[in-house]
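Bug report

Summary: structure tokens for Glycerol-3-phosphate acyltransferase differ between web form and batch submission.
Environment: batch mode, default settings.
Steps: 1) Submit the sequence below via batch. 2) Compare with the web form result.

Sequence submitted:
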Amino acid sequence: MAELVSVAILGYLLGSIPVGFLMGKLRGIDVRRYGSGATGGTNVLRTLGPWAALFTVLCDIGKGLLAAYLGERLAGEWGFVAAGLLASLGHSYPVWLRFRGGKSVATSGGVMLLHYPLAVLVGIAAGALAVVPTRWVSLGSLTASLAVVLQLFLLDAPLSHRLLVVALAVVIYVRHWENMKRIAAGTENRLGVKARPRA
């Protein structure tokens, strides 16, 4: 039990590293004051540009992957689950930023990348197919998340892994609640639109 608690804390701390926020600070910009207010890759793209966004996404994937790897290495199967889920939650709710972070898509993808790289790639492809005609990145993120969940159930993955991927999807969908409302209304921001200062 102590091992699980330890790797959960480790996962949270890794996940809570606010890469997008730090990228903005290097340029004197607080990305939380623009666009969606999130610190993840999409808002960084709209606020700081593609290179900063690419770096942010790769780091967010990396911290999820590292948390999952260390969790499993130190505490086995359920360590993978605990560290992976807490990394995702840490990304979305970092204590350092008063629990205002990103939306956990890249970090959750990094977690699942440890055991299911093909499923993640298929999820990315499915997400891209949703983005191309709509230019709604949020719709792509939601589609990718759902695609990975479905694949793990079709693959009859271990119960612990299926529970984890469902939990990660719940985090992603909760964090995209406002996006989903805008998608339903047809008012969601489209790819290529620059972030505006928040009121």
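Above is the batch result. After comparison, the two runs are identical; trailing whitespace caused the diff. The chain has one domain: 2-185. The mean pLDDT is 96.
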